Amino acid sequence: MLPLIFFSNNAHKCAEVQAILGQEVLPYTRLLGRVEVVESAQSFEENAHLKAQALYPFLADKLQDFLVLAEDSGLCVEALGGYPGIYSARFANIKEGAKEIVRGNFMPPSASSSDIENNRKLLACLDILGLLESPACFVCVAALRGRVGGQEVSQSFRGECLGRVVKAPLKPNAFGYDPLFIPKGYHTTIDNIEEKNQISHRFNALKQVQVFLKRACLKLPH
Questions:
Q1: Does the pLDDT value for residue 33 go beyond 70?
Q2: 32-52: string of b/e by CB count within 10 Å (b at 16+)?
Q3: Which SS3 state, helix, strand or coil, does residue 163 take?
Q4: Which is nearest to 65 in space by CA: 145, 154, 155, 150?
Q5: Which residues are CB-contacts of 23 (< 8 A; sequence separation ≥ 6)?
Q6: Pick among 1.10.3720.10, 3.30.450.90, 3.40.50.920, 3.90.950.10: CATH of 4-217
Q7: Alpha-carbon distance 6 to 193, whole Å?
Q8: Pairing verdict, β 66-77 and 133-148
Q9: Organism's domain of life (predicted)?
Q10: Residues 118, 89: contact at Cβ < 8 Å?
Q11: What local confidence, expressed as pLDDT, does residue 219 receive?
Q12: Is position 61 annotated as part of the catalytic site?
């Protein structure tokens, strides 16, 4: 089987990706030391490719055929002009308020913040705008970089999950913005939905990855 190395140290995310793909996913730190990447791009696609490319040179000398899987994901809230978007993991470190964020008039944050801090920031923004909810969309872009049958590969796949963010109680053990997001067609937040891994933005991106991997494996020598 083609080695799939995942650019993440997040155990929760690794388990989720492995469950969706139905195959072993190796956290990159099992093969390499820590690799720091500044997510300086202006889109999910570009940031995902930045991370995938960052690992490629280190692995190209170690492995013949392999794929690095990297993803960038976030929450785009209509009432906030599509933000936090690519700043979803750093949202709480945006010092400006909701009205400045809507206009894109803020200093991009560099440091990540905790899930609970990001949830508080989102709720505070809804308060400032006088809203109980807003249409929103979870976005995930999965990028692949590596070699298959000796040929270089660079590909990306985008998945979305439409819905709305709502004012709801904070949860200390929350994963991302899940406790504040209700998917389209549902009446409860996504963290309470048993089939989350069959409807999420990550699922929609990774199912495309899964199709690509099946085709790629056919190109490998047997």
A1: yes
A2: eeeeeeebeeeebbbbbbbbb
A3: strand
A4: 150
A5: 1, 4, 213
A6: 3.90.950.10
A7: 25
A8: antiparallel
A9: Bacteria
A10: yes
A11: 59
A12: no
Contacts with 125 (C-beta within 8 Å, 6 or more apart), sequence order: 77, 79, 80, 97, 98, 101
CA distance 195 to 177: 17
Angstrom distance (rounded) from CA 29 to CA 35: 9
Look at residues 83, 73, 95, 103 and name the one whose alpha carbon lies nearest to residue 178.
Answer: 73
Confidence band of 218 (pLDDT split at 50, 70, 90): low
Amino acid of residue 121: K
For the segment 95-115, what is each residue's pLDDT rounded down to a tens digit? 999 999 999 999 999 888 999
Question: Which residue is it, tokens 């905790």?
Answer: 114
